[in-house]
Specification:
Layout: H1 16-26, E1 29-33, H2 44-53, E2 58-65, H3 76-93, E3 98-105, H4 113-116, E4 121-124, H5 130-140, E5 148-150, H6 162-168, E6 171-175, H7 180-183, H8 185-194, E7 201-204, H9 217-225
Parallel strand pairs: 1-2, 2-3, 3-4, 4-5, 5-6, 6-7
Length: 241
C-alpha cells in the first residue's frame, strides 16, 4: 500500500506525539498468549517472567475456553482458578508489567457471563461475518461488560461487517501467527475501506510457548507502514462498559 492508508475523520487528527506514544506502547505489548491452562506449553509464571525479561509492559493471557478438554478450560471451577491466579499475579508483578486477563473462545452458547465479566477483554474466533457475528452481537455482547475483539481476524471477510464492528466497538486482532490474514493482496483492498472507520486494532503473537512471546513486530510494522498506529486498541479498566 504505497504511501500508506489515508485516515479521515477525528481519528486522522490524532497528534504526532500521541501516535508515537501508541507505537511505543505497541512495541511493548503482546495481547494473545497461551499457557498450560489450555494448549500452551509454558506455566503462567514462566510466561510472565519471560515477558518481563523481554521488556514487555502489557501482557494479555488469552487461554482457550470451550468444550474440548485437551485444548481448553472447560469448567467453571477451572475458569475461577485461572481468573484467581491471574488476579493474584497482577498485584504481585505491579509495577513491572501490566497483566491483562483474557480468554479466546469459539463457542457462543452456554457462556459463563458472571466469570467472563471478571476478565479485562474477550477474543472470539470465526465471527467475522454471517450468523455467528449476528449471534455474537445480539446474544453474547449485550451480556458482557468487557471489550470484545475478533481473534486472528480474516480481514477479507470484514468488508460487509464494518458497520457492525464500528457500532458495537468490536476490535480486530492483528495476529502474527497468521500474517496473511491481514497482509494478503485480498486484504489490501479491504484495509482501504476500513481505514476511515473507528475500528480499533490489537496486536498479539498467539504464543504457545515462551519462545514466541512478544513476537508482534510484523503487526506493528504493518500498522506503521499503513498509517494505522492511531487505531491501536489499548486495554484498560476504563474501557469496560
Amino acid at each position: 500500500m504505497k504511501g500508506g492508508l489515508r485516515m479521515t475523520g477525528g481519528e486522522g487528527l490524532a497528534s504526532t506525539s500521541k501516535i508515537s506514544q501508541q507505537v511505543k506502547r505497541a512495541r511493548q505489548m503482546d495481547l494473545h498468549v497461551h499457557t498450560t491452562y489450555s494448549d500452551g506449553n509454558s506455566e503462567l509464571r514462566a510466561v510472565v517472567d519471560k515477558a518481563i525479561a523481554l521488556g514487555i509492559k502489557d501482557l494479555g493471557i488469552t487461554d482457550h475456553y470451550g468444550d474440548l478438554e485437551w485444548y481448553s478450560i472447560t469448567s467453571i471451577t477451572q475458569l475461577d482458578e485461572y481468573i484467581a491466579e491471574l488476579t493474584g499475579l497482577k498485584q504481585l508483578y505491579q509495577p513491572k508489567i501490566n497483566i491483562w486477563i483474557g480468554l479466546e473462545m469459539s463457542i457462543l452458547n452456554g457462556l459463563p457471563f458472571l466469570q467472563l465479566n471478571k476478565l479485562d477483554y474477550a477474543l472470539f474466533e470465526d465471527v467475522e461475518m454471517g450468523p455467528r457475528l449476528s449471534h455474537l452481537v445480539s446474544q453474547v455482547k449485550p451480556q458482557l461488560k468487557i471489550p470484545v475483539g475478533i481473534a486472528h481476524a480474516q480481514v477479507i471477510f470484514l468488508e460487509k461487517s464494518a458497520d457492525i464492528l464500528e457500532k458495537e466497538k468490536i476490535f480486530i486482532e492483528l495476529n502474527t501467527h497468521y500474517p496473511d490474514r491481514y497482509r494478503s493482496n485480498w486484504a489490501r483492498s479491504i484495509w482501504h475501506k476500513l481505514a476511515s472507520r473507528d475500528i480499533r486494532l490489537s496486536v498479539g503473537s498467539d504464543a504457545h510457548d515462551t519462545k514466541r512471546i512478544g513476537d508482534t513486530g510484523d503487526a506493528i510494522r504493518f500498522m506503521e507502514e499503513n498509517g494505522l498506529s492511531q487505531k491501536l486498541w489499548l486495554p484498560s479498566k476504563q474501557q469496560q462498559k
